[in-house]
């Protein structure tokens, strides 16, 4: 039986990896380092661009480092998917991974499935609210080693758009050159799955009991508890 999809697009938090790890390990790591980053590296291009975006988001063009740090921490507390927050987190996390201070988390069922799908010729993409830099660091420093070679492309809210908007998924489809009905999106969040389906994609909700969105209504999306239960040759799950 031939497969019905040409590529799998992966959410990270709650899908490939535990939300608890992100919240309990990565968020505090960034929070402890925001102050030094703003004080010592505000002239770096990526940091400077993010700071300008924070000021725009706040509507405060003259906001200084203390006000920006306060805003970043508030957004962190609210788990806001704000692009400059994700950019600055990504800068800090990438450096933490590179120094060996951080090692990412993947559920045990994920990496074997990714390797199998890749070996079968499926293209794999990542689409996460976390920045592309953070994604690459995450996949590059896993307990299973460097997984970046499995991934064809990386998308975040900056190069694709917000994950709750169908237009973002249309952007990814166009960029990948793959017909929407041949793309499979895996996520734990119903709103993201709805947006992908509205763009013509196939979807599977990854429903892990320990994850925050486990009890939410899936609105007819196929579902799987682990990657082992996802059938890329059939309906998706």
Describe the structure.
- It is globular, with a radius of gyration of 18 Å.
- It has a 6-stranded parallel β-sheet with strand order 3-2-1-4-5-6, sandwiched between helices.
- The model has no long low-confidence stretch (mean pLDDT 94).
- The protein is 43% helix and 11% strand.
- By secondary structure, it is an alpha/beta fold.
- Helix 1 packs across helix 5.
Descriptors:
9 helices; globular; alpha/beta; six-stranded parallel beta sheet; 237 residues
Helices, by number, come to 9
Write down the overall geometry.
globular
Structural class: alpha/beta
Oligomeric state: single chain
Strand content: 5-15%
Helix share, percent: 40-55%
Mean pLDDT across residues:
94
Give the terminus-to-terminus CA distance: 15 Å
Q: Which stretches are low in confidence, meaning pLDDT under 50 for 5 or more residues running?
A: none
Radius of gyration, CA atoms, in whole angstroms: 18 Å
Largest pleated sheet? 6 strands, parallel
SSE topology string: EHHHHHHEHEHEHEE
Number of strands: 6
Strand order of the largest sheet: 3-2-1-4-5-6
């Amino acid at each position: 039986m031939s497969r019905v999809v040409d590529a799998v697009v992966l959410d990270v938090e709650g899908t490939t990896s535990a939300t608890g790890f992100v919240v309990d390990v990565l968020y505090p790591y960034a929070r402890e380092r925001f102050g030094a980053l703003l004080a010592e590296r505000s002239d770096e291009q990526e940091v400077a661009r993010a700071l300008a975006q924070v000021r725009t988001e706040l509507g405060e063009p003259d906001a200084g480092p203390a006000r920006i740090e306060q805003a970043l921490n508030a957004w962190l507390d609210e788990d806001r998917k704000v692009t400059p927050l994700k950019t600055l987190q990504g800068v800090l996390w990438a450096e933490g991974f590179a120094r060996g201070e951080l090692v990412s988390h993947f559920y045990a069922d994920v990496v074997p499935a990714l390797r199998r799908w890749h070996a079968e010729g499926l293209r794999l993409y990542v689409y996460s609210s976390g920045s592309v830099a953070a994604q690459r660091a995450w996949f590059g420093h896993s307990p299973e080693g460097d997984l970046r070679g499995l991934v064809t492309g990386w998308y975040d809210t900056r190069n694709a758009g917000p994950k709750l908007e169908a237009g973002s998924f249309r952007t990814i489809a166009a960029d990948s050159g793959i017909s929407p009905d041949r793309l499979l999106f895996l996520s734990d969040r119903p709103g993201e799955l709805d947006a992908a389906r509205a763009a013509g994609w196939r979807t599977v909700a990854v429903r892990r009991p320990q994850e925050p969105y486990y009890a939410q209504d899936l609105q007819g999306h196929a579902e799987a508890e682990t990657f082992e239960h996802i059938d890329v040759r059939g309906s998706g799950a």
